User: What shape does this take?
Amino acid sequence: MGLTTLANKYFHRRQKELERHQHEAIELQREVLNRLIHKAKDTEYGHKHKFGSIGSYEAFANYVPVNTYEELKNYIDRMRHGESDILWPGRVKWYAKSSGTTNDKSKFIPVSVDGLNNIHYAGGKDTVALYLLNNPKSHVFDGKALILGGSHAPNYNVHGSLVGDLSAILIENLSLFANFIRCPKKQTALLSDFEEKRERIAQETLNRHITSLSGVPSWMMSVLVRVMELSGKKHLEEVWPDLEVFFHGGISFTPYRKQYEQLITSKKMHYMETYNASEGFFGLQSDLNDNAMMLMLDYDVFYEFIPMEDFGKPNPTVVPLEGVVLGRNYAMLISTSCGLWRYMIGDTVKFTQRDPFKFVITGRTKHFINAFGEELIVDNAEQGLAYACHETGAEVVEYTAAPVFMDNKAQCRHQWLIEFSRKPDSLEKFARKLDQKLQEINSDYEAKRYKNITLQHLEVIVAKPNLFNDWLKIKGKLGGQHKVPRLSNDRKSIDELIALNDK
Assistant: This one.
């Protein structure tokens, strides 16, 4: 009996449990909230915000404020120095290093033992459970899983405490079985130098029996390109004939899909999106024919949502899951067993259905362009680029966009810096099709573009090969969880990139 057959038997019970997401979503979330509040009532934060008196969602929303990282930073810093029972019971030893805030280069997200097991690993297990449910003929466990990871380092020299990429924390704490089926070896996976890591991963996996991939699409593609160079083959299935699935997350897959489909032409290849962040594991693609993900409701995560039209207001409307409206754009708040309370994660989502609740990630609360009232979000950008690529035969590797503010003639526009793996047949046509699609899907952008009165036609600058990777390397952010800012209301990143592009 093969390992995949045994895995199917192991995951059957969980597959049945997941059926509750279809009929008992609100009940599941209330159970999670009660569990979190009860467990944390004797922490410092719990005492301060009267957790012992909270018996309903309404009381929770009344006693506990909405938080950004800045509001929790002092608590987290004390935890990093070894203090216990602050935001979550006991001492938290692990901290996931994430991209920074306005005031800090990095955020340090607590990862408690409860959070590790009941959020992050729960999500990993359910990824497999749902994949096997949808693919009963799978042989995914009959080979090895190529899993990309980041790196970690000592935390404030506190004994036994480490800080680093979430992926490194997950690899460091994997079970014996998970370590048995994954590659590369741990010391390679946790290397901090991405270029060295890329080379060693390619060398170590070239002749292995790889059946699955897990990681961020951009960094995984970089590794796969090196594997192809070493192998001399044309398609990846010639190297790994039994490869069947790529579990991907961290960034949108849309700009990379065509590259993967050209690299992997096998009809048995599957792509499954996961919504796993430093702060938690939130969603899974339960139907590979539907890009929307199912919100995972029985982990140690309680969800709330702020309508984006209220975002940034002093007292915004906040609703629990039962209050969401399909098709509306929301900023997401989470409360978790890692000690994040009503925490604004920074992502925006839109629900596409109920029973079960399914959603798509539409962007970031800070990654948008609204310099002229156009409210352009990442979801708009991805749709526009996909259309422009389809119309011109182009393929996009990386991109960023920012406003060019009004000159003395009141002229302004959006400027797009795009790295192509295949250039469009006409750059002018590409820019025109992109602009056309953005107007079609975003009425605010369309209004500002009307007769070029407020906003002139967008500009596309072609980036030289590897520009974005070179920029990340200069900033010490190559590999791991680091991402290129897709949209920005200021020009800091794009000006740095253009300067590097012109050298």
Summary: The longest helix spans residues 113-134.
